[in-house]
Each structure stands twice: as C-alpha cells, then as structure tokens.
Design brief:
This protein is an alpha+beta fold. It is built from 13 helices and 10 strands. Strands 6-10-5-7 form a 4-stranded mixed sheet. It has a 3-stranded mixed sheet with strand order 1-9-8, covered by helices on one side. A hairpin with a 2-residue loop joins strand 8 and strand 9.
Length: 406
C-alpha cells in the first residue's frame, strides 16, 4: 500500500499498536479493509480504531454498501459493430478518384522541393528518387494497424487530454441547460398552481383544529385522510403486503417496524440499507411507490396520474429517474389508495429506494415534507387538499413518493 504503519520497533510487545487517526488519514487502508486485503497487523489497527469511533465505523459501512452495490451492477454488453463504428469515426477513409491513381507519384514528387542542382544531377540522384518513390509506395500498401494497436494509440497522453477537455465542456453545458430548464418549469408550475387554486380544497390550520404543542408529540388536528376509513377490498392481481424502509403495507394499513441493525453476512452482503433521512430533522423515512401503465411512456403515465389525482410533479431536480410526485397520506389509507390506482389501470407497488441519479434528490424531497398536499379517499374517489402545519404532520401521516417506472 505504500503507507507507513503507526508502530515502531519499541511499540511491539505489551504496548500494542499505536491507535490510528480518523478515516481521512488512512483512506487507502479503508478501501483494502472493505475488500479484505489487509494483513493481520493492518487489520488489527483498523479494528482497534473503529471499535471506539462511531463516525468512522458508519463511514466504512456506507462505503461497504456502495462497493457492494457497484459490484452487483452488471456491465452492459457493447454492440457488435462498436469497433468498426469507432474506428471509422476516428480514421475516416477517403478513396482516391481513379484519375488520380496514375498521377500519385507525380504529385508526391511535386510536393518535395528540389534544387536546380539536384534536377541536373546524374544517375545517382535519379536512383535516390526512385528509392524514395518505392518507400512511399510500400508505406501506402502496408496493412492497416490492428485493433490493439489502434486502441493503444487512443490512450496516448495527447488523446486523453483532448477527450478530457471535450467531456468537461459537455458536462458544463448539460448542467447549465438543466438549471435553466428547471427554473423555467418552476415558474410555469407556480403560475399554473395560482390559476387552479380555487379547485383545491383548503383546510385551515386553526379554528376547529387543535394547536400543535411540541414537535415530539406532533398533535396536529386530523385531516380528512387521517380519520378512520375502512380499507377497500383488494383488487385481484395486486399485493398489498410488502415491507419497505421500515413500513409494512397490508390491507389494514401501514405499520412501522423496528429497523434492522446494519451488519455484514458471511458472504459479504449487507443486511440493511443506510437511512437517508438523517440529515433532514423530523422528516419520516419515505414510502417509495413505483407506478406505471402498460405500453405507455413515463411521461404519458405521469400525465394520467396527474389527471386522476390532481397532483403536480416535483421539480426535475427532485426526480428519481422520471416524473416524481410526493404527498402526505394517512397510514390507514395507503393500501386503499394503491388499490384505487390499480382500478384506474396503474400498477402501483411498494418499492425500495430507487437510485438517486441526480445525487441530492432524496434530501430535496425530504426537505419539502411539510409543504406537500394531503391525499385521501372520499366516496371511492381520490382527493387532494392542503394543510398548513404549525410544526410537522402527525405521526400517523406517511410520506408517499410516487415515481414512474418502465
């Protein structure tokens, strides 16, 4: 590894190894520790430190989960014609017209400056020019370089520098365009929400509702979605008994289960996923729901979902791979809501947290918890309303995040 051990010849024996600092000081050791490539001495140094340092232990477990996920992703097979397409783009071949073939030697000689003395030289000079022409002809008739030689030429320092500059320009342009597009869509969404505000039921934060005393109790007055509504009969073909992110979806509602302790099995896989809501104080762990429709694109599916529920998709920097919606719902009505979506032709299933392609979408979703509309069932129809919370929604209110899946 090239790292110096934190021990000296005088530190062996009864004194034991010198403790390590925090993980930032031995990042290389951390990677080898996760992959099981440390010797006994290095392994004991790391184990001794993480046994008493919770932050470093948590960072190692998080990195272990990332490494396990990366190992589980199967690389995509390249198309069979990729080699020919790449080489054709890098080395375009243009055939000479037939009328130039006979004049090739004449044009090649004309490009080489010749002094007057050389033009009047004797047979030796003529022989020299003849040899030059033969070498040029042999170079033109030489076989094309092999695939391996061409591939190695692409990884020359000059080519890598050019490729890096192109990638940087493309990334900067993409990020700038996406930021401008998100800003324009946010403005358009705000105008649409203002023009349709009369169609949304507004529930006051005070009046006949009790005032919430403290965040720990979160006693906000029940909304229409939190009253005791009996679950509807489950439609055929949909399973409503699914455990995800610490919640169990059943026909009786949603129940909270005790989180599993993060650990490692004998085969090296993790027994639980890291919590993502720890950085957003008070926000619950989301219930992720993947929804789709047969033979429709995510955009068409999202438009149909928006028409039935009256919800608007979150901004694009909140999307989990496609159009994403977030609502607050009573834990007692989640199963009935999924059943209602199924009756409208949607496949809605509880899911694990999807991959956060944008990197910060999960935190953005959690940060807006108190501003999301409440979804409920009324006479078999899906209704949405807005509630102004003094602190946080009640503990029997779940955060549902619907994301489109193909």
């Amino acid at each position: 590894m090239g790292m110096e051990h934190n021990t000296s010849s005088s530190e062996f024996g009864n004194t034991g190894p010198k403790p390590l600092g925090h993980i930032d000081e031995w990042a290389d050791l951390a990677l080898d520790y996760i992959e099981g490539r440390l010797d006994a001495h290095q392994f004991s140094l790391v184990e001794h430190h993480i046994s008493s340092c919770a932050p470093c232990r948590e960072r190692l477990e998080e990195q272990r989960w990332i490494a396990g996920w990366a190992a589980s992703v199967r690389p995509a097979e390249p198309p069979p014609d990729m080699e020919s397409r790449v080489m054709a783009a890098l080395h375009p071949h243009t055939e000479r017209p037939s009328w130039l073939a006979s004049a090739d030697t004449t044009y090649s000689d004309a490009l080489v400056p010749v002094s007057p003395a050389a033009r009047t030289a004797g047979p030796e000079n003529a022989a020299h020019h003849a040899g030059t022409r033969e070498r040029r002809r042999a170079a033109r008739e030489a076989p094309a370089p092999s695939w391996g030689e061409r591939l190695r030429s692409l990884f020359q320092p000059r080519n890598l520098a050019i490729a890096g500059a192109i990638i940087a320009v493309v990334m900067v342009g993409t990020i700038t365009f996406r930021s401008q597009q998100t800003a324009m869509e946010s403005i358009a969404g705000a105008r649409q929400a203002t023009s349709t505000a009369a169609a949304v039921t507004q529930v006051p934060a005070s009046g006949d509702q009790e005032q919430a005393p403290s965040p720990s109790e979160a006693p906000v007055a029940p909304t229409p979605s939190s009253t005791g509504v009996q679950p509807t009969t489950t439609a055929a073909g949909i399973s409503l008994t699914t455990t995800t992110n610490g919640y169990t979806l059943t026909s009786a509602g949603v129940t909270k289960t005790s989180p599993a302790t993060t650990g490692q099995t004998t085969d090296g896989t993790l027994t639980s996923e890291p919590m993502v809501s720890s950085s957003i104080t008070g926000a619950p762990e989301p219930l992720w729901v993947a929804f789709s429709r047969d033979d429709t694109s995510p955009e068409v599916t999202a438009a149909g979902f928006q028409e039935i529920t009256g919800l608007s998709p979150l901004p694009q920097d909140h999307w989990m791979g496609g159009p994403t919606f977030a609502v607050v719902a009573s834990v007692h009505e989640v199963a009935a809501l999924l059943d209602s979506l199924h009756q409208h032709g949607f496949r809605a299933e509880a899911s694990k947290q999807p991959i956060d392609v944008l990197g910060n979408a999960v935190n953005l979703i959690l940060a807006g918890f108190t501003s999301y509309p409440v979804i409920s069932l009324s006479a078999g129809a899906i209704r949405t309303s807005h509630v102004s919370y003094a602190t946080l929604p009640p503990r029997d209110q779940a955060l549902l995040v619907f994301f489109t899946s193909r």
